[in-house]
Amino acid sequence: MKSLRLIFCALWTAAFVSGCGAYSFTGKSTLSSDVKTFTIRDITLSAPSSYATISQEMTEKLKEYYQRNTKLKLVPQNGDISIEGSIVDYRTDGVAASSGGDKAAMNRLTIVIEVVFTNKFNEEDNFEKDFSFYLDYPQNQTLQEAEKTLVPKILDQLVLNIFGDTVAKW
Questions:
Q1: Phi and psi at residue 108, in whole multiples of 5°?
Q2: What range does the domain containing 113 cover?
Q3: How many CB atoms lie within 10 A of CB 94?
Q4: Is residue 22 one of the residues assigned to a domain?
Q5: Within the chain, what is the greatest distance between any pair of CA atoms?
């Protein structure tokens, strides 16, 4: 009797899981099967002051992430899906007052990228949207010191957010 229950449970589970074939835990299956290629144009820099190589780093991080996490082929132009963008804001702000109250105890580095996404096969997916992310750093650290660790982390998160809204639909 126990083995009969076990077999029934196994069959029920298999039927349930196969019935959920359109669902993906990673969300990677949301693109039409017609989409085979992608283009990522060079990310431009329109923020007044920023990390010297930020636009090139962002462009390369996007290309690498899409290549690693999709089966799409990178093409220099006219991809089935296309991403272009510009870093429109790069700023640091004081976010927490120190015990003396006249100085910030923590500073925040914020990066904003404006993204234009185009899908040739589903125009409803197309958008123009700002993505932003920030990380805090202590007041006793200069921006130049903090940038070395913060900028790569912020760019990684921006890539994840862009991927989530363009391909994975998280």
A1: -125, 125
A2: 29-168
A3: 13
A4: no
A5: 75
